[in-house]
Design goal:
Length: about 280
């Protein structure tokens, strides 16, 4: 599969969100971004988590994060100014650091506080449209923090759709109804076009009945929104971030890498369906 699915005026924005921690949000954002870049998309990962794990996982040292998502949301820098190249061709990241912890109190009384990321993305789109001869970003993936706060709200207001990683463990559906209600609330009040793009089952262990039971339960809850591809529990996936590499670069042939390539193919197929609708 080759070629891009979007253009300057068709930049697609996906928020990777779940208020539960440890479900694979950052891993999914990093490796989906890598897989999309590998098939010809130009991808920007926006790290909205104060822990900065997406930045670390893409090899960005803390000392290099001189312009961060905090600066973008404080209106002190543009996404273009903040974007840093990674080792992966066509994959860039706007890094995060602990400055983001104080963002909510900084913008609490600002009237446009929920629209800051959307405005920054619109400015990026306008900038790309003014330079039609330069290859622009075709995908933005927003790695959200594990909470439903102002950062996640900014992501949902800015996004076309939300990708929800769900871990194949006992408490998988805990809080999912709250996340769904939040998405519905944003759609009803701030972003009428927001959709759930899909649900990705992560950390699936084929050796256990529990993983299969949870997968079935999630599929009953979300129906055909659940991707067919399941991301396996895989030691190589867990190791990759400590080396500052996406799993597709760290160990291209492992089961985790192959799963993310399949997931990217599914997402591209859905994107084409959306474009045709």
């Amino acid at each position: 599969m080759t070629g891009t699915t979007t253009g300057h005026d068709g930049l697609r924005v996906l928020a990777v969100a779940n208020q539960k921690g440890g479900v694979g949000k950052t891993t999914t954002a990093i490796n989906l971004g890598t897989a999309l870049a590998a098939i010809g998309e130009k991808v920007l990962v926006v790290d909205l988590d104060p822990q900065g794990n997406a930045s670390t996982g893409l090899g960005i040292d803390e000392a290099a994060r001189t312009i961060s998502t905090f600066d973008v949301l404080m209106l002190e820098a543009s996404l273009s100014q903040a974007a840093l190249p990674t080792e992966v061709p066509n994959l860039y990241v706007v890094p995060a650091n602990t400055d983001l912890v104080g963002l909510e109190s900084e913008i609490l009384h600002e009237q446009n506080r929920n629209f800051r990321l959307r405005d920054a993305i619109n400015a990026l789109i306008a900038n790309q449209a003014a330079r039609p001869d330069e290859p622009g970003f075709t995908y933005i993936l927003i790695d959200c923090p594990p909470s439903l706060n102002a950062l996640t709200l900014n992501a949902m207001v800015a996004a076309h759709s939300v990708l929800v990683p769900v871990q194949c463990e006992f408490f998988a559906l805990e809080g999912i109804s709250q996340l769904r209600a939040t998405i519905d609330g944003v759609r009803n009040t701030l972003n009428p076009g927001l959709e759930i793009h899909g649900v990705v089952l992560t950390m699936h262990d084929a050796r256990t009945n529990l993983s299969d039971e949870v997968a079935s339960e999630v599929r009953r809850f979300f129906g055909n929104k659940v991707y067919n591809t399941m991301i396996p529990r895989n030691v190589r996936i867990a190791e990759a971030p400590s080396h500052g590499k996406p799993i597709l670069f760290y160990d291209h042939n492992c089961a985790g890498s192959q799963a993310y390539i399949e997931l990217a193919s599914e997402i591209i197929a859905r994107e084409r369906q959306f474009a045709a609708a």
